[in-house]
Amino acid sequence: MKPLDTVLVHTDKGQETYLNLTSDYLYWENNGRLYSYHTDEVLGGKFQDNSLSIVVYRKSRFRFFKFSCENGTHFENSLSSTLNPCYKFFLIVYNPISGTGTSKAELFNTFLPVLSLTPHRYEVYQTTSQGYPIPLIERIGSEFTDVIILGGDGTLHLLLSALYKRNRQSLKEIGIAVLASGSRNSLAVELHGKSFNEGIYNILKNCTVLGDLMLVKTDEDSLLATTAVTCGLGADLPYEAEKNRNLGLFRFALAGVKALIMPWKHYFCSFKCEKSDGEEFERIGEFLWISIGNNKAQNLRNDEIPFPYAYINSGDMDAVLIDPIYKLMTTRLFFQILNGGQHVNNPAITYIKLKKAEIKFEQCSVFNIDGEMHFSKKVEVEILEKALKYYGKLESFN
Ligand SMILES: Nc1ncnc2c1ncn2[C@@H]1O[C@H](COP(=O)(O)OP(=O)(O)OP(=O)(O)O)[C@@H](O)[C@H]1O
C-alpha cells in the first residue's frame, strides 16, 4: 500500500531511514530489521527541536522511539490526523495519599511521558482532604472534555458527587477515566483489568463504555457512586481501618483481626427493594452485612469478587445480604468471596438483582459508599442507567 506520508530521519546511531505511514501501519527499517506497528498500537508522535518521537503500545508495555529529523511537522500532523480525530482537554486529578501513595510517580513517570506525545491538552490537579474547589468543578464540561483520576474509588466518588451538586449537566457531556492507584480500585479493574497501562491505552484510543451510576440519598445528602454501598460489618471494618491509614494496606488485615478478637456484632435494620423483575422484597431483622454493587467490585490485589454477576452497564444493581452468622462461618464466607465469588452459593447469602433499594436503621449508622464513610439512619439507592461515559472495555475482563 502506498504510504500516506513519509519522512527521512536518522536513528540514534546516525543511520538514515524513512518512516512510512499508511492508514493502517507505521513502519521503518533499521539495521536490516523491519519495525512495523499497526495504527491501533501507535499512541502518538511529536516533532520538536529536530527530533521526531513516537510512542507505541504492545504486550502491555509502552515503547518510545526517537529519531533526528530536519522537518517532521508535516509527518506529525499526518500521524495525529490518522490517530486522533478528536482532540481532548483532560483534567488529570491525582490523590497523593490513595493506595500506597504512588499516584504522583505514576502520573509523572508513566502517563505524562506518553500523553505529551499526543496532541491532547491537559491540566493537573492534586486533591486535598477538603474536597474539590467549586471553580474547578464548574470548568468541567465547559472547558475540560474529560476527567482522568489517578486515585481510588473514593476520589472518583467525591468528584462525581460534587458534579452532581454543582455541575450536573456536565455528567452527560464528559468522559471519565480511572487509572488505578488506590487501595481497591474496583471501577478501574472492571474497565481496564488489573493493568495501569491498559487504562492509558483505553483513554488514548478512545475506548468508551456507557455505564450506570448509583444515586445514593442519605439523611442529609445526595451522592453518586460507581461501585458499592455497604453497611454492617462491611462498613465497620473499613471505618476502623481508615483510623490507621498510616499503616498502608496492612490496615485492612489489622481491622479484620481486631474484629475477630472483639465481641461479635449483628446489625438490626430493614432492607426494602424493587427487584429487576418488578417484584417488591422486604426483610426486617438482624444482618451481618448488606452490600449493593454496581460492578463486580474486584480489586487490584487478589481474586475477591463480591458481586460476580454485576456489570457496570447492566442497568441494574446486585445486592448481597448476609444473614447474622458467627465468626467461624464468616471466616469461611470471606474465603469464598476471595476465591472468585463462590459465596453466592453459601446458604447465609441472599443475592438479588434490583433497581432501587432502601436500608433503614433505628439510629445513625456508618455506610461505606465507594470506600468513603458516611453517617445516616437511612440510605436510598437507585440505579441511573447509562448515565456516564467511562473509558474502558468490558468484554476482555468480564
Ligand atoms: N491531599 C490529601 N491529603 C489527605 N487526604 C486526602 C488528600 N486528597 C484526598 N484525600 C482523601 O482521600 C480519600 C480518597 O482516597 P481513595 O478512596 O481514592 O483512596 P483509597 O481508599 O486508597 O482507594 P479505594 O477507594 O480504591 O480503596 C478521601 O477521603 C479524601 O478526602
TrEMBL record:
One GO term (biological process): sphingolipid metabolic process
Cited SUPFAM superfamilies: NAD kinase/diacylglycerol kinase-like
GO cellular component: membrane
Highest taxon of source: Eukaryota
SMART domains, sorted: DAGKc
A GO MF label: lipid kinase activity
Membrane-spanning residues: none
Alphabetical list of PANTHER family matching this protein: SPHINGOSINE KINASE, SPHINGOSINE KINASE RELATED PROTEIN
Name this polypeptide is given: DAGKc domain-containing protein
UniProt source species: Stentor coeruleus
